[in-house]
Amino acid sequence: MTVSSPLIPVLGSLHALQVPIPYPMKTVTVLIDAPAHGPVTMIDTALDTPEARAAIEAGLKALGLHWEGVERVIITHHHPDHYGLAGVIEERSGARVTMLDVEIGRGERYWHMLREWLPGHVKHMLDHGLPQEMVQGMRGENEHVHPASRVQPLREGQTLELAGRAWEVLWLPGHADGHLGLWNPEDSLLIAGDAILPRISPNVGLYAYTRPDPLGDYLQTLGKLEALNPARAVVGHHGPLMEGVRARARELRDHHHERLDFMKAETAGEPRSAYELSLAMFSRDLPTSGRRFALAETLAHLEHLRLLGQLYRTWSEKNQVWLYHA
Ligand SMILES: [Zn+2]
Ligand SMILES: [Zn+2]
Question: Phi-psi category of 272—alpha, beta or left, where left has phi over 0 and alpha has psi -120 to 50?
């Protein structure tokens, strides 16, 4: 009986794994590069679950490696499904964990500042109308995430080697403040993480600790991707590879512009809170965590318009909430 290898070839010594995660996307892409010369590198690490550990171990084994063999870890962004096992790998192998400098100062810091940041995080949601009972489950912690103890910075424009080729480090903010991309012009290949996804629109949310205009950031990222026009991209979910990045970037930009128009129409009448507006923008039934994501995404659209001077907000003393209006 032949057991098929879990490794999907990407480019030379660079391979992709589809690692299971307990989210609707079902898998996240983890990349392993085991070149003849140069460090054994893992890009993104999935969440720490027994299933994910087994899947990554199987991938390493197919290359004749084990956890101890990993020398460098590159994280596209701080979200649990990409960062979860980084600390475990660091501890077991002494691997150097790297991220974009912007992400270290923001998203990554979040995992170390949970207790200090949680009250501000909760207040931000309440100030925008989230009902009190919907903040109950917010602990911020995640038992599947083990942040690294030392993360070394990568900088936009820097070059690093992977699969025997030179890759440019890109900053692709929006989905996360310090989202990293790796660009190989020679092969027209982009390692994109969640900056662009083929089937779902990457969540763009405004939280207490994010940059002030994540949607503005994301629209610029989409412009950057459109100009780059990679032949192929390695994506975090529903991949590992996608083509048609330029067309998808345009589609996502249209999608956000439609939502901006919708917000303008919705705020033309009575002033309303971002939470009330999120019920209009995401009218389907959602679990509490989904409602908080919906609020953050609605807020990203509202604040983008407000910073452009196309909407206003007023603090309601009576309801202790921000109200958006034309
Ligand atoms: Zn993400
Ligand atoms: Zn993801």
Answer: beta
Domain borders along the chain are 8-266
- State the residue for tokens 């923008």: 281
Cα 77 to middle of ligand 1, angstroms: 7
pLDDT tens digits for range 82-112: 999 999 999 999 999 999 999 999 889 989 9
Whether domain 8-266 has CATH 1.10.10.10: the reply is no
Tokens 């290359």 appear where?
63
- Spatial strand order of the sheet with 165-171 comes to 159-162, 165-171, 180-184, 189-193, 232-235, 241-242
Task: Report which bound ligand comes closest to the CA of 21.
Answer: 2
For residue 171, the CA-to-ligand 2 centroid distance in Å is: 16
- 149 CA distance to ligand 2 middle (Å): 22
Site of tokens 């207490």: 208
Q: Say whether pLDDT at 141 is over 90.
A: no
Contact 48, 145 (CB under 8 A): yes
Q: Taking the CA atoms of 303, 309, 310 and 312 in sequence, report the sign of the dihedral they define.
A: positive
Helices marked H in the chain:
50-62, 80-83, 86-93, 101-105, 107-112, 114-127, 214-228, 245-266, 274-281, 288-307
Q: How far is the CA of 201 from the centre of ligand 1 (A)?
A: 11
Q: Mean pLDDT score of the chain, rounded to an integer? A: 95
Burial of 191: CB neighbours in 10 Å, binned 0-12, 13-18, 19+: buried
Is pLDDT above 80 for 173? yes
Ligand 2 midpoint to CA 79 (Å)? 7
The pLDDT value recorded for residue 3 is 58
Q: What's the CA gap between 13 and 2, in Å, rounded?
A: 22
Distance 78 CA to ligand 1 centre (A): 7
CA–centroid distance, residue 28 to ligand 2 (Å): 7
